[in-house]
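protien #1 (seq + structre)
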Amino acid sequence: MSFDKLFDKGFKKRNRGHFASLVRIALTDHKITSEELQLLHRVADKLQIDVIEFNQIIKNPNQFPINPPSLVEHRHERLYDLVKMVLADPLFGNSENSLLTKLCIGLGFPSDSIETVIAKALESVKNGDDLETFSNHITATYSV
């Protein structure tokens, strides 16, 4: 197998895992709202998730594990997407917070500052911060 195919396979696997995490958040209340669905379609395009994969992941998101990226910047981008999904549904509760906490730990954020990271991430996205500003806020909450 060529190096390019290995890279593509790992890249797609990480993207499917991230997309499945977004679907899990959307489904915490057992339904996907139109706002959540719009965000899922946008992210699917960005992650190169085709229609068949999209439908498979929607049907069974737990089949796709989290595959955290190695670069901190990419982890911040994943967290940014996750928080946008959480906020796409106005009913943010304990289930979403619990799942977001697990996903953040799975992405490699330090467990001893996870509450601070999540609070800062939610605040930053609510303020309409772009990814770069968001990333700067998140970096300030923990030591890499």
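ok now protien #2
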Amino acid sequence: MTSNLIIEIKDLSKEYIYKKSNLLIFKNINLNIDERDIISIMGPSGCGKSTFLNIIGMLDSDYNGKYLFDNQEVNLLNNDKKNILRNTSIGFVHQFFYLIPELTVLENVAIPKMILTNNKKKSFDSAKYLIEKFGLIERINFKPQYLSGGEQQRVAIARALINNPKLIIADEMTGNLDEETSDNIFNFFLKEIKSNKQSLIFVTHNEKYAKKANKQFKILKKQIIKI
């Protein structure tokens, strides 16, 4: 393994049991991802894009083959070590935001750092810095229901970035936004990732966004194919 390789996948296969039959999702996938890579993944609905992201994000460990993250074989780690690695090294941005409705913008952004450090002041200071950077300082004490869709997505991105993870995983992150808002959010997001020298893997149905990646892939016929 080279020193700048963040992800190495060897002969990855995944299947589900469906109505007492085996449903094969992937078969013998091999993929390497370097630090600072911007990776887009496209493919038809139901092809396994979100399943693949769940494996990369250490949310699904029921597969065959090897997955190494930062030179560590993920399925050889116990749950505690896996949770720590996920919280310190991976940020998630989803289509549906998943903000906690009872919490303010400040609290939503700060949560991952509070879990990691158990230090409220440090977490809030980091959250305030990102909130201001993302143009949301006037919304800092608002709850999610009082934010627009674009504002909610910026909060979700700030939350994903607060622990300065090596890898960001985004699943159709602008799927619920209008085109102009989507373009603004996506371009802002991509600029932030590149500025922070992070790696990004994102799933999209939007070919325009997919082409902004430095490596583009499609999931077809149970394989990940470089395009």
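Helices lie at 49-56, 79-89, 105-117, 120-133, 149-161, 179-195, 207-210.
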